[in-house]
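In the laboratory, one determines a bound structure by crystallizing the protein with its ligand and collecting diffraction data. In a computational setting the workflow is compressed into a single prediction: the sequence and the ligand go in, and a structural description comes out. We illustrate the idea with S-adenosyl-L-homocysteine.
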Amino acid sequence: MTDLVQAIGEAGPITVERYMELALLDPDHGYYSRKQPFGAAGDFVTAPEISQMFGELLGLWCYAAWQAAGSPRPATLVELGPGSGTLMADALRALESVAGGPQPFDIVLVEASARLARRQRETLSGRAVSWCSTVEELPSRGPAFIIANEFLDALPVRQFVRTASGWRERLVMVEDDTIAFVLGRDTGGLAASLPDAPTGRVGEISPARDRLVRGLAAKLMAEGGAMLVIDFTAPGMPVRDTLQAVRHHRHADRLTAPGEADLAAAVDFASLGRVAAAEGLEVFGPVSQGAFLNELGITVRAERLKRSAMPETAHRIDQDVHRLTSPDAMGEDFCVMALLPAGCGPPAGFER
Ligand code: SAH
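The predicted complex, in structure-token form:
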């Protein structure tokens, strides 16, 4: 029995939300606290790990949003859950090139894992970057331009199962040294936002994501800026069980060996949009990642990179574009949403 299984056993039945928190971020046994998640040797590959073009285009998106806001100084560029730091390194390179000198942002990374913050420090060595471990600690230094790529999917969800007598919360407990799902007694009214569904179906909500978006919305309304959310979604949400475990690039059992596999749940963009709009933000999208990157000119960028590349590398660049944009790869399962204070007009990639 691993320490996490023991801890869950001792805690008694816990919510799926608490299970995700422990499995991902427990300081001693959590996945992000101990594992090397990214790349071929890790468990999964994210868009910035596929190609430098991804981070470059997002950096340019932030620059365009900053210019549209009147090129304010100071201004902050924030990345939530920066993983290996690759996206920000690519974004900074593109920003320096487009600014024709020092780029205009103070850079702040929000990272809960001390281990991954060290990794980011290595990737970004020599750069003026600061860190905080929660969004509540973000400084107020001018408008904030915020990127969240595959961050919200790591924030925990609560799950409910539709029974003959209504929604009941799905809980996690240990039975005979094995983790299992059980049903809680009632939902405490939390499932009220779920639509009705046939018996046996699972509904998902994420108070943690709603809280995060609400907090950042207040910041954007007060200080200006923009937020770009990129993440995987699924049809039929919120009546859908999207909790998934991934290990060595394959789906794994969600309840076996917590802390060994990445755990994530799809993002319900409609729900996020409602929370942001209620705080006064204007919501753009979601659009598919493929459509978004095409609008930002990924093919033009690819052609430029290919011009100075060996044939083998040029072929790889084409494959990377395909992986990022094609419906049979990340192009449609991943969506992009932009949140801005009302009246800013549509940001790049959302004009049509
Ligand atoms: N954005 C990166 C990595 C995605 S993995 C990429 O696209 O490659 C999720 C990242 O979010 C990791 O860096 C993880 O440590 C961080 N993270 C997860 N939950 C967090 C939380 N509650 N607060 C801050 N960071 C968190």
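The pocket of S-adenosyl-L-homocysteine is lined by residues 24-25, 32, 38, 46, 48-49, 81-83, 87, 110-113, 116, 149-151, 154-155 (CB under 6 Å). Keep in mind that any predicted model is a hypothesis to be tested, not a measurement.
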